[in-house]
């Protein structure tokens, strides 16, 4: 008898799998690589919304868990996935500089906003109004994390590369049965793939498509992340990850000309050097109308659970949402109303 079957091995599935393993639970993870949001993500963690200079929801709580979580994973997988690099907000006017300093008076933002204007001149970027530096930031190499985690689970036969067939799930009194597997619980973490899940497909998971480039810029020298209308992450060898767009209509994961034009125009606002597009990706973020995660237990079955709706911030939200779900299942700790799927009960 397993403790958990986990469907999905993106940032949500990994966060839950790891939380369960840290508590010595027996798990099997099933994934079919049908969604690529986690794989192509920028992977940034940044406690500040740089458009408005406001705090990310529950940033302090999430940041408190994040370091330990990815450090432990790195030790276990023996690979570096967490790159702690400053994120700089390029200012476009004196007014923006003033807004930054006004925001740093906010006690929730103060730990994250440097009070020194950064005047460094990076080759390839014109920055007459300098930069503000966000503290405690970086990025997770999500593709490397996904591949390394799968490899790790494969060694102990805990990973099944297949499409989960919902018709074959049998709900017994004290456990669930899937093919030959029996488990105390099943956790669904399928990202936008949730729409095929008959247990949860009435939840309002809208999905927001995002497109992203890898560019090569021989005359750009950056060892920090620039984040303004798009982020620019240095990958080494003159390669940079640049993104992302937001499209609420198109729900496919195909790169588009429209996305390409938008990214090119935003890059040109920031860079004043030549670059070439090496790769172009697209994926659908699992976003929810109220911008809060979808966490909880099925209203009619206490063995079936969901961890989804991580939206635009899977890296930061994953560890804390997985912990909340795990504690609610194992120790009956109530979930906060903001994240509990019960908030949609009346509308379902
Ligand atoms: C362009 C872009 C840029 C982004 N940048 C950032 C960023 O900088 N920082 C950040 O924190 N977040 C970022 N995000 C958001 C982040 O990627 C998401 O929050 C995160 O990927 C959600 O993870 P998930 O595990 O819920 O979903 P997914 O990554 O979609 O994972 C779901 C998994 O379930 C599997 N699955 C689905 N259905 C089935 C089935 N029936 N059987 C078997 N397996 C199944 C899929 O194959 C997939 O592996 C970005 C997203 C995009 C698209």
Structure explained in plain terms:
- The chain is globular.
- The protein contains seven helices and 20 strands.
- The protein has two domains: 2-43 and 143-203 and 289-347, 3-Layer(bba) Sandwich (FAD/NAD(P)-binding domain), CATH 3.50.50; 86-136 and 208-285, D-Amino Acid Oxidase, subunit A, domain 2 (D-Amino Acid Oxidase, Chain A, domain 2, 2-Layer Sandwich).
- By secondary structure, it is α+β, with helices and mostly antiparallel strands.
- The strands form four sheets. Strands 1, 2, 10, 11, 12, 13, 19 and 20 form an eight-stranded mixed beta sheet that branches.
- Helix 3 crosses helix 7 (314-331).
- The longest helix has 19 residues, at 59-77.
- Bound molecules: flavin-adenine dinucleotide (FAD).
- Residues 7-13, 30-35, 37-38, 40-44, 163-164, 189-193, 196, 210, 212, 243-244, 283, 285-286, 308, 310-316 line the site of flavin-adenine dinucleotide (FAD).
- Flavin-adenine dinucleotide binds next to helix 1, strand 2, helix 2, strand 14 and strand 18.
Proportion of residues in β-strands: 25-35%
- Describe the sheet with the most strands: 8 strands, mixed
Q: Which overall shape is indicated by the principal axes computed on the Cα atoms?
A: globular
In CATH, the homologous superfamily of the largest domain goes by the name: FAD/NAD(P)-binding domain
The average pLDDT score comes to 96
- CATH C-level class of the largest domain is Alpha Beta
N-to-C span: 33 Å
Return the domain count. 2
Q: What's the number of extended β-strand segments?
A: 20
Radius of gyration over alpha carbons? 21 Å
Structural class from helices and strands? alpha+beta
Give the H and E element order. EHEHEEEHEEHEEHEEEEEEEEHEEEH
- Share of helical residues: 25-40%
CATH topology of the largest domain: FAD/NAD(P)-binding domain
| Low-confidence runs of at least 5 consecutive residues | none
Q: CATH architecture of the largest domain, please?
A: 3-Layer(bba) Sandwich
The number of distinct helices, counting runs of at least 4 residues, comes to 7
Q: Which small-molecule species are bound to the chains here?
A: flavin-adenine dinucleotide
């Amino acid at each position: 008898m397993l403790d958990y079957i986990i469907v999905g091995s993106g940032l949500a599935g990994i966060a839950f799998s790891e939380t369960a393993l840290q508590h010595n639970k027996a798990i099997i993870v099933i994934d079919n690589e049908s969604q690529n949001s986690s794989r192509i993500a920028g992977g940034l963690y940044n406690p500040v919304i740089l458009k408005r200079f406001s705090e990310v929801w529950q940033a302090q709580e999430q940041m408190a868990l994040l370091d330990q979580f990815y450090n432990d994973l790195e030790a276990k997988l023996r690979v570096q996935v967490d790159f702690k690099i400053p994120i700089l907000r390029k200012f476009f006017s004196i007014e923006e500089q003033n807004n930054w300093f006004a925001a740093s008076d906010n006690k929730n933002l103060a730990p994250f906003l440097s009070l020194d204007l950064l005047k460094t001149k990076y080759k390839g970027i014109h920055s007459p109004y300098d930069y503000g530096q966000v503290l405690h930031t970086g990025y997770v190499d999500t593709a490397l994390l996904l591949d390394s985690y799968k490899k790790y689970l494969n060694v102990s036969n805990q990973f099944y590369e297949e499409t989960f067939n919902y018709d074959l799930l049998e709900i017994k009194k004290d456990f669930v049965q899937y093919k030959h597997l029996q488990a105390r619980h099943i956790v669904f973490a399928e990202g936008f793939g949730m729409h095929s899940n008959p247990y949860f497909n009435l939840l309002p998971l809208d999905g927001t498509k995002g497109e992203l480039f890898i560019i090569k810029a021989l005359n750009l020298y950056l060892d920090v992340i620039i984040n303004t209308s798009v982020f620019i992450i240095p990958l080494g060898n003159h390669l940079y990850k640049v993104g992302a767009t937001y499209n609420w209509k198109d729900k496919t994961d195909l790169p588009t000309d429209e996305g390409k034009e938008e990214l090119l125009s935003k890059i040109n606002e920031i860079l004043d050097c030549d670059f070439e597009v090496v790769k172009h990706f697209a994926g659908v973020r699992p976003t929810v109308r109220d911008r809060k995660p979808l966490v909880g237990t099925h209203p009619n079955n206490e063995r079936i659970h969901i961890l989804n709706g991580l939206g635009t911030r899977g890296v930061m939200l994953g560890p804390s949402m997985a912990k909340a779900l795990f504690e609610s299942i194992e120790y009956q700790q109530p979930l906060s109303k903001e994240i509990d799927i019960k908030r949609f009960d009346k509308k379902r």
